Fold these 4 entries.
Entry 1:
Amino acid sequence: MCDQLGVIRQGYYRWLSSGPCERERTDAELTETIREIHAELHGHPGVRRVWAELVVRGVRIAAKRVWRLMRSAGLRGRHPRAWKKTTVAGQRPVDAPDLIGQDFGGSRPRCAPRPSSSARRARHRCCCPAGTG
């Protein structure tokens, strides 16, 4: 296999025994820090809030890396549900009961008496027929 890859056996075994690279180690440390932040904020923060908390703690990291680490750790922020209308209007609203008991359906409309001057008569027309108001 080493011949096909063009590497010497000693280099392959040195690489194999060296363990995880620096990026994998820092990713593991950051993932633990992100888990702590997620637990402190009661499992609600998203990528932006976790990233802001890391910046406050003095960690220089890109938001895209926080997104990748949160996704690989299975952490998700709380996404608010869409607003749902709870009141459904019917075809005809329910009539309120008549607690007073007055009759509002009179035989003729009530209006003020007609004024005597012709100028007022022209300006203030009444809805009643002549002589009934």
Note: The chain has a mean pLDDT of 80.
Entry 2:
Amino acid sequence: MKRRRNGNKYPASYLIPGEKMKIRNIFISADRLELFLSYSLKIILLMAAVDSVFQQSYFLIFSAVIALVGSIMPAILSKQWKVVLPIELDLIVTSFICAHFILGELHGFYLRFWWFDLFLHSFSAFIFGLVGFIWSYMLFYTKKIHAEAWFIAVFTVSLAMAVGSVWEIFEYTMDQTFGFNMQKSGLDDTMGDLIVDLIGCSVVGVLGYGYMRTKKDGFIRRILLRVERYVLRTQTKGSES
């Protein structure tokens, strides 16, 4: 397929003919291992949620429900809205949620280590930024939208910041309504979280912009190759069934 010459100098595909069948068959064992780890973490998360019920802590029960819903969101996005996310991203999201609920809430890491909340927020912003970039790039890649590289980078940052802002509003609402302590130190906690959110998603925006302008091999290219591989395998399974 040819490159477009209207100012968007990005290839329509990053796989050359003959590579698709090869990519379909590689890393199968790695995918199975990642899927096993993801489901194992979900089981551990469920056990921790059950433990929070026995502790009769409404806050922990509420946090457990949020954590369980969040851990299955990648599957929901894939099934209901056809947002294709590789298995690696599902594992990363599940690991992040386990760190938040099991380490942060159950074992008090948020109170014991001042940097733990900032680390998780910057990491989550990076992940949401990555999801936003993959989504917008795949729309561009399939020619459903026509956009410049800077616009996709700005959208990536904006989406992650919107998610972070909504979460901070959610924390404030829960604290004011039910007397929880999700914000920990109030305004300082909120502003610190939003600042590290901006840093985390900006990294993805810069990396994504750089890739779309130069097409150099790197982290973003490897992620996109994995996404296309996953799409290819999913479409192949659908055609076989």
Note: The chain is about 80% helix and 0% strand.
Entry 3:
Amino acid sequence: MRVNVFIILVAILSLTTVNGQKKTYDLGLYLGGVNYYGEIGKKKFISPNRATLGVIGKMNFNEKLSLRGSVTFFTLYDDDRDSDQPYRANGRNNSLYYSFDNTSIEASVGVEYVPFSFLKNTRNPIDFYIHGGLGAVYNEELYYPLSAGNEDVVAEKYGSRTRMVIPFGAGLKTFVGSNFMLGIELSPRYTMSDNLDGSHPDAEELEANQLTNFADNDWYTFVGLTLTYRFGKGTNGYCDCGL
């Protein structure tokens, strides 16, 4: 149901681009960190351990509502030896320590909304925003070789796959000068997969390689900075376009 709502909302906003009204546009870079949350390694929802780099663009309908899209490059990684959970950190009762890394690229589109701003009456107010949408991540299919214990086991690749993700989050942004905008953002991703980490391969021949005690689908979380350049009508400060 949530997916259908987002699709309808994005479609409605996209149709407004043909109405001839002038808008502003932001284009720039995203730089930050990412961490995975699942069956391997740490169980911390926000604990970046690998860098991310991406491009982000926005179509601003007014000072509160925008359509946004991004493409982000990153690697997901974790290791049981780094875990803060005793069961994993102590070798899962069998001196087994699992680890993986998964090179990934994500594309997403969504809606961004500013419910309120700080320092509203100044030249460069600070906007608090929330966002949500749909995306897809392309990365490797992994599995762990069978082991009798007493060793470190590194995930191996057996294919590649595109998976749907649901991005959402919140952040702060403000103008730096007349046209550049600086932002900081926290953006979790819920994925439609339980095998970003190699713990639950769904290939029939690898059913025996699935780990026990697996949880729900995997997550990953971005924390980072955005630096964008605004162009179009109303580039000096807020967009003065109409929806």
Note: The first strand starts at residue 24 and ends at 37.
Entry 4:
Amino acid sequence: MMETKEHGKLDAAPAHLPSHETPLDAPIHTTDDEFDQVIKQHPNVIVDFWAEWCAPCRAIAPMIDDLAKKYAGKMTFVKLNTDENPRVPQQYMIMGIPTLLFFKDGKLVDQVVGAMPRGPFEERVKKHLA
């Protein structure tokens, strides 16, 4: 939120679609409608398909947040709630969550299904940045 001088109130900034020129140190929360634009706007993207009720999704959330900070400016992390946004998971045939899809220049290049430990997952991230 930011305050505007003209109105003296808080206006929501369009934070859900930041430019890839600004390093993101936290995951972007996206929707079915914004998904394609977010994927095309950032050169390296990992999408975390999750749901509130999913314990393994909640278990990896701190790792995703940490890696978003660590790789800010190199890899963009995106979260998509599958309960609220069913179209994109169907499009990519997501059968279980958490599922993490890796995109490079808008193209799907890798996926991880299930909660992977940080060490092997971070090695996978580094591989895609090499």
Note: The chain is about 30% helix and 25% strand.
